[in-house]
Design a protein that fits this description.
With about 475 residues, this protein is of the alpha+beta class. Helices cover about 25% and strands about 15% of the residues. One of its GO terms (biological process) is response to hydrogen peroxide.
Length: about 475
């Protein structure tokens, strides 16, 4: 058996779990193999985005209608605050020329131009994801892209990975359900997906999840309906968004959050930072906090959509991160991808530029067209009052960590409870669509991989297995 190595021939002891401080994280920067994998992935293709390559975007605003001062000091989330934004939708796996109406997860990335700097919430139209450790992310995306030998998509690769990483079953069930092909970007929900933190003026931390529920209603396409649309229009979602805003039919979403106090994570019964799981609404109810509307189309697609750059590392006082291992890695991976794809000064482009005051000692670099406003100093610390200084009042409260540095497996192996709950929520017609969609996606897949998938489906529900098995025989 060949031994796995990194790019320099160093043996890889564990290629499934990143190195973290304790089982819940956060991650350690000394995990050089994780950094190598993520950095290499960001440089695999130029200049197209590695994922989320094809997108649509529009401008709008967020209005907060609830009093959240108990949970956060962020100005953007205070009652009555109206914040301009740009929202970029996208398909995930397809290239820039992919059809809009393909079965795929949709990106849901929002840049809020707040009074305290840009806040980016980079999510999807699903509350979960296929994996919970970014160590697996480059490998997962490889399965969604083209085989380097044939340059063809591979159902076999996708199902091989999914069935060997059963934490993906929850997301796979969503993807293969009737919601796997939204009728348009306007007719789907959006989610921050990750667990983030809110910090109030008493320096108390709360864990939070963000939800955006479409006010247009959920509308989806069957495989047959999508195929008929793609045959005539590969830009169906883009066309729908542009035309809706042009005629004044502005898309709207109800904004909701789920909140847990910092010490309440155990009430869920599982790792609250596991991206493959939702927080059950029966335990952590949704709270209405406002409305988001899109009311202006972009004027230059390349400048405002293709060069729009999002990263969860862009936060503002009162909003922070969590030990979610996927989120922790994206904090590095996303801005690294943008610096590579667009350039080191991508933040100076109008669509990305903060509308609040910016004071930085990051200077020079290709395509820097900014003026220098730091007075006498071009470094920090310095002795000059007119030059910007650090302000420790913005420090976040301590985050208690424990555990030895090691490559920890996930805290649980419960891959079936939440997919089972989702399956039981489906009516019979939705279940039949699920079975049919899975069977269609298994064309060309090795029989051993199909058998492995059926074993997983049976653990979710015997009806799940039998439904897929029957659909495969048609």
């Amino acid at each position: 058996m060949k031994k796995l190595t990194n790019d320099f021939g160093n043996f890889v002891a564990d290629n499934q779990n990143s190195m973290s401080a304790g089982a819940q994280g956060p991650l350690l920067m000394q995990d050089y193999i994780l950094l190598e994998k993520l950095a290499h992935q960001n440089r695999e293709r130029i200049p197209e985005r590695t994922v989320h390559a094809k997108g649509s975007a529009a401008y709008g605003e967020l209005k907060i209608t609830a009093d959240l001062s108990k949970y956060t000091k962020a100005k953007v989330l205070q009652m009555g605050e109206v914040t301009p934004l740009i929202l970029r939708f996208s398909t995930v796996a397809g290239e820039a020329g992919a059809a809009d109406a393909e079965r795929d997860v949709r990106g849901f990335a929002i840049k809020f131009y707040t009074k305290e700097g840009n806040w980016d919430l980079v999510g999807n139209n699903t509350p979960t994801f296929f994996i919970r450790d970014a160590y697996k992310f480059p490998d997962f995306i490889h399965t969604q892209k083209r085989d380097p030998r044939t340059h063809l998509r591979s159902n076999n690769a996708a199902w091989d990975f999914w069935t060997l990483c059963p934490e993906s079953l929850h997301q796979v069930t969503i993807l293969m359900s009737d919601r796997g092909i939204p009728a348009s970007y306007r007719h789907m929900h959006g989610f921050g997906s990750h667990t983030y933190s809110l910090i109030n003026d008493k320096n108390e931390r709360f864990w939070v999840k963000f939800h955006f529920k479409t006010k247009q209603g959920i509308k989806n396409l069957t495989n047959a309906e999508a195929q008929a649309i793609i045959a005539k229009d590969r830009e169906s979602h883009q066309r729908d968004l542009v035309e809706a805003i042009d005629r004044g039919d502005f898309p709207k979403w109800k904004v909701q959050i789920q909140i847990l106090a910092e010490n309440e994570g155990d009430k869920l019964g599982f790792n609250p930072f596991d991206l493959t799981k939702i927080w059950p609404h029966s335990i952590v109810p949704l709270m209405d906090i406002g409305e988001m509307v899109l009311n202006k189309n972009v004027e230059n697609y390349f400048n405002e959509v293709e060069q729009a750059a999002f990263s969860p590392s862009n936060i503002v006082p009162g909003i922070g991160f969590s030990p979610d291992k996927m989120l922790q890695a994206r904090i590095f991976s996303y801005p690294d991808a943008q610096r590579y794809r667009i350039g080191t000064n991508y933040h100076l482009l109008p669509v990305n530029r903060a509308r609040s005051e910016v004071n930085t000692y990051n200077v020079a670099g290709a395509m820097n067209f900014d003026s220098y406003k730091n007075g006498s100093a071009y470094y920090e610390p310095n002795s000059y009052a007119q030059s910007p200084k650090e302000d420790k009042s913005y420090l976040e409260p301590n985050l208690n960590l424990e555990g030895d540095a090691q490559r920890y497996k996930a805290l649980d192996d419960d891959f079936y409870t939440q997919p089972r709950a989702l399956f039981h929520l489906m009516n019979q017609n939705q279940k039949e669509q699920l079975f049919s969609n899975i069977a269609a996606s298994m064309e060309g897949v090795d029989s051993t991989i199909i058998d492995r998938a059926l074993e997983h489906f049976e653990k979710i529900s015997p009806d799940y297995k039998e439904g897929v098995k029957k659909a495969l025989q048609k």
